[in-house]
Specification:
With about 130 residues, this protein is an alpha/beta fold. Helices cover about 20% and strands about 40% of the residues. It has helices spanning about 15-25, 75-90, and strands spanning about 10-15, 30-35, 40-45, 45-55, 70, 90-100, 105-115, 120-125. Strand 7 (about 105-115) and strand 8 (about 120-125) form a beta hairpin. The relative contact order is 0.21. The mean pLDDT is about 95. InterPro entries: Glyas_Bleomycin-R_OHBP_Dase (IPR029068), Glyas_Fos-R_dOase_dom (IPR004360), VOC_core (IPR037523).
């Protein structure tokens, strides 16, 4: 069982670490945890995100099959993120939009693109029990 102090670890490629810091810290508001010549680690909404310097970044931003992000339990947290994205003019792949309208799985979603074409999805279910 995961202890609340544990962090999920996600590692992604980054073509430029300065761009990654600009996007994740100054764009999304993640906290810079550590930085080395070949990688940078962030506190990404309570979990660990590592951007590894790589020439093998996605050629284009495609949401499926690979993306990551946060499923917000509270609608106001999703709304706050949408305002940050709009204010800071972050690159939006799609949304905000409503998915599965009229079903038990109805939720709002927003897909962003980082400077290395990694896709992030943020969402908020009408029924917070479905965030997992």
């Amino acid at each position: 069982m995961r202890d609340p102090r544990d962090a999920c670890h996600v590692a992604i490629p980054a073509r430029d670490l300065d761009e990654a810091v600009e996007f994740y810290v100054f764009g999304l508001g993640a906290k810079l945890a550590r930085r080395y010549d070949d990688r940078v680690t962030f506190d990404f909404f309570g979990d660990q995100l590592v951007c590894h310097l790589s020439e093998n970044v996605p050629a284009e931003a495609v949401a499926y099959p690979r993306h990551f992000g946060v499923s917000f339990a509270r609608a106001e947290d999703f709304d706050r993120l949408v305002r940050v994205v709009e204010h800071r003019k972050l690159t939006v792949l799609s949304g905000p939009s409503l998915r599965f309208e009229g079903t038990a799985e109805q939720h709002r979603t927003l897909f962003l693109v980082d400077p290395s074409n990694n896709v992030l999805e943020f969402k908020n279910y009408d029924d917070p029990r479905l965030q997992y």
